Amino acid sequence: MIKSVAGMYFSPSGEAAKLTKKISKVIKDNIEDISIEEINCDYEDMLGDYSNEFDSETVVVIGVPSASGRLLAPCINSLKKIRGNGAFAVILVTYGNNTYGDSLFEMYNLAEEAGFNVMSAAAFAMDNAIFGSPGIGKPYREDIEKIIEFARVSANKIKRLSGTIIDEMRTKPAPLNIKGSKPHRKPVKIPLHPSTNSLCIGCGKCIEICPMEAIDKNDPSNLDIKKCIACTACINACEQDARGFSGPMYSASKLAYEIFTKKKREPEWFI
Ligand SMILES: Cc1cc2nc3c(=O)[nH]c(=O)nc-3n(C[C@H](O)[C@H](O)[C@H](O)COP(=O)(O)O)c2cc1C
Ligand code: SF4
Ligand code: SF4
C-alpha cells in the first residue's frame, strides 16, 4: 500500500524542481485512484546539507540536472546520504538540449545502491542553466503531454507492483536498460564562472546557497574558481540580478551551444 509520494530535487536553476513537482503530482493523483486513504505529497530540496530515510510505502520522485553528462559532486553527496529502504523511485534528469550522457545511468546506480526500487527513469530537455533557452520554445510545451504520460505509465507500474502480495516481486523489479557506460565518462569542469556586478547589495544570499562554499563570506565578488562548479545556484538566488556569466569565453561558448542545439531533443524514458 502506498501512503505517500515525496518529490526530491537538486536543482540549482529550478528546471529539475519544476519537473519533479509536476511528475510527483500526477503520480500521486493516479495512485490515489486505487487508495482508500488520502496520499501525502511533499517536496524536498536537496541543495543544502540533505539526508533522509524512506520506507517501502513511499514513492520517491528524484529530479536532478545533468552537467557535462554526469551528476554534479554535491548532488552525488546528497544522493549518497539518502536511504531508500525499499521505497519505489522514479528518477529524472533534466539537461539543456545537448546531451545527458551517463548522468541518468549514474543516478540509477546510486539510487539502487541507496536501497530504492527504481521503477522508471527519464531524461527531459529543458532550459539550459548556463546559456538560457535555446530558442526552441521554453519550456518545450509540446513535451508537457509526454511528461504527463511518463508519470501515468510510472504510476501504473507502481500500482501493479505495490498491489502484489508476492514480496519477492516488490524487492526485485526487472532492471532498467538505461543508456550509459560504466565506468562513467570522465567529469569535465566547465571553465566558466559567475561574476558580480555593481547591482550587488551584499545581502549574502549567494554565499548561503553555494553548495561548494566557493564565494568569499566577506566579499561576494570574490570567487574561488577552483571550488566553483558553475552550478548557477548563486545566480538564481540573487534577487538583484547582480550575478551572471559574462566575457568573451562565455559569448563564444553560448554561440557554439546555440549552433549545436538547434534540433530539439525528444523526451526519453526507460520503464
Ligand atoms: C555545469 C553545467 C554543465 C552542463 N552541461 C550540460 C551538457 O553537457 N549538456 C546539456 O544538454 N546541458 C548541460 N547543462 C544544462 C543543464 O543540464 C540544464 O540546464 C538543467 O535543466 C539544469 O537543471 P536545474 O535547472 O534543475 O538546475 C549543464 C548545466 C550546468 C550547470
Ligand atoms: S545574492 Fe546578489 S546581491 Fe546578494 S550578495 Fe550575492 S551577488 Fe550580491
Ligand atoms: S559560486 Fe559556483 S559553485 Fe557556488 S553557487 Fe555559484 S556557480 Fe555554484
Major sheet size, sense and barrel closure: 6 strands, mixed
- The order of strands across the largest sheet is 2-1-4-6-7-12
State the distance separating the first and last CA atoms: 21 Å
Number of domains: 2
CATH domain fold name of the largest domain: Rossmann fold
Going by helix content, strand content and strand pairing, the class is alpha/beta
The radius of gyration computed from the alpha-carbon positions, rounded to a whole number of angstroms, is 19 Å
User: What CATH first level of the largest domain would be assigned?
Assistant: Alpha Beta
Helix and strand sequence? EHEEEHEEHEHHEHEEHEHE
- Unique bound compounds: flavin mononucleotide, iron/sulfur cluster
CATH architecture of the largest domain: 3-Layer(aba) Sandwich
pLDDT below 50 for ≥5 consecutive residues: which ranges? none
Number of E strands: 12
**Percent of residues in helices:** 25-40%
Q: Any overview of this molecule?
A:
The protein has 271 residues and is of the alpha/beta class. It has two domains: 4-184 and 265-270, Rossmann fold, CATH 3.40.50; 195-244, Alpha-Beta Plaits (2-Layer Sandwich), CATH 3.30.70.20. The protein is 31% helix and 20% strand. The chain is built from eight helices and twelve strands. The protein has helices at 15-32, 73-80, 103-113, 144-162, 167-171, 205-209, 233-237, 248-260, and strands spanning 4-9, 40-45, 52-53, 58-65, 82-83, 88-95, 117-125, 195-196, 215-216, 219-223, 243-244, 268-270. The strands form four sheets. A six-stranded mixed beta sheet has the order 2-1-4-6-7-12, with helices on both faces. The chain has a two-stranded parallel ribbon with strand order 3-5. Strands 8-11 form a two-stranded antiparallel sheet. Helix 1 (15-32) crosses helix 4. The mean pLDDT is 91. Bound molecules: flavin mononucleotide and iron/sulfur cluster (2 copies). One iron/sulfur cluster binds at residues 194, 210, 212, 214-215, 223, 228-234.
